[in-house]
Amino acid sequence: MKRIYSKEGETLDDIFKNNEYEIYNQVLESIKESYRELGDKEVINVISISTKDIDYSINLKREKLAPSLEKCIAFFERIEEYEKCQECVNIIKELKKNKQEVEYGIS
């Protein structure tokens, strides 16, 4: 899991703002690496953020993958990284397809 360390005097909001690309990219990469093997109750450990006083972790359950990828799409569209947008769209389609297969017992 990737770790981001705060700089002196940075608030959590500052950390998110100053590391926005790195955070969104890490969300995408973490999901890409493990979404196929992720069970319903398991989580993906995405990123850890360390401040002077406390450590935070961003973790995603399976049902949060598609909504998180939607947020990634919005970010990557804003900075015109369309290849990353397409990666997100492809994973969302696969997640939805796999969900339908499970719901209908298709194998």
Strand order of the largest sheet: 1-2-3
Strand segment count = 3
Range of strand content: 15-25%
Low-confidence stretches: none
Oligomer: single chain
User: What composes the largest sheet?
Assistant: 3 strands, mixed
Order of SSEs, N→C?
EHHEEHH
Q: What's the pLDDT, averaged over the residues?
A: 90
**Distance between the first and last residues' Cα:** 32 Å
Tally of helical segments: 4
CA radius of gyration: 15 Å
Coarse shape? flat
Structural class: alpha+beta
Helix content: 55-70%
Describe this structure in words.
With about 110 residues, this protein is α+β, with helices and mostly antiparallel strands. The chain is about 55% helix and about 20% strand. The chain is built from four helices and three strands; from the N terminus they run βααββαα. It has a three-stranded mixed beta sheet with strand order 1-2-3. A hairpin with a 4-residue loop joins strand 2 and strand 3. Helix 2 (about 20-35) packs across helix 3 and helix 3 runs antiparallel to helix 4. The termini are far apart. The relative contact order is 0.15.
